[in-house]
Amino acid sequence: MEIESELRKADRDSQFSIFYQPKIELKSGAIAGMEALIRWEHPKLGVVSPTEFIPIAEETGQIDSIGEWVLYQACQQTATWHRAGYDSLCIAVNVSVRQFQRRGFVSTVRNILEQTGLPAQYLELEITESIMRDVSETMKVLQGLKKLGVKTSIDDFGTGYSSLHILKELPIDTIKIDKTFISNMEKQANRSMVRSIIDIGLNLNLRVIAEGIESEEQVAILKDYHCALGQGYLYSKPIKAEMFEKLLADSI
Ligand code: G
Ligand code: G
Ligand code: MN
Ligand code: NA
């Protein structure tokens, strides 16, 4: 498979980069943090989307080292921004199930925090609902991360293997409402769904973030439902670090 072998050969530091998409406090409009999203530009293949290469990397196991690379870069960049004065920014990093369940994952995270100097409470790991398939293993890892002080979030919430019974037991911090619910909010049924998800989150003392926000109408509804945080093209697409710095400078 071409992608697999090209991925193996890829010089990370020259072909991979990380884009950042801001997370916004809906009430104030302030930037609360950002999500790190990997980008791969191959000299011949051009830009390869993560939706294409991440599943392959998950199958082959390459995700372990790619994921570590992302985590390190994202923590290092955030620590740099903290030193520049933006010291309340939180960084969210996507973690594949395979990576999350790999032995030693918690130590890897601890080492990266030590190496980069980023305090643990400013790191959030985004994992999907499929981690709920192996509750006892998931519980151990989540407890290890919690002990470290790292935050965790359930990404694409509402689209996957989800059990409210399990959700209630997991030591997580945030649920991230999937963008498919947000994009269809002009329909009453979808609005009710969004409202219910937010209420579940609030009742479980979790933070709730809506992703895929593209209009002011959506923001107004989400604020009305007491959703604290949002993310989406209305605010910004995922952008390069230099562009993100401009956004930070302009937002003061
Ligand atoms: O940025 P974009 O919308 O193209 O991302 C597409 C998909 O790739 C999303 O599901 C996103 O979570 C995933 N993705 C992006 N960066 C990473 C990463 O660093 N690690 C993992 N595991 N998934 C990522
Ligand atoms: O699975 P995950 O939530 O990590 O994926 C994030 C993906 O969603 C990224 O590829 C990002 O580019 C995309 N995304 C972010 N905001 C929006 C938005 O407002 N609209 C749409 N359609 N996609 C978005
Ligand atoms: Mn995500
Ligand atoms: Na998502």
Automatic annotation (TrEMBL):
UniProt domain EAL: residue ranges: 1-252
For this entry, the protein name equals Bifunctional diguanylate cyclase/phosphodiesterase
Q: What species was this sequence derived from?
A: Virgibacillus kekensis
Q: Which domain of life is it from?
A: Bacteria
Lineage of the organism: Bacteria, Bacillati, Bacillota, Bacilli, Bacillales
Instruction: Work out whether the entry's keyword set contains Repeat.
Output: no
Q: Which residues of the full protein are shown?
A: 499 to 750 of 755
> Which key words tag this protein in UniProt?
Membrane, Transmembrane, Transmembrane helix
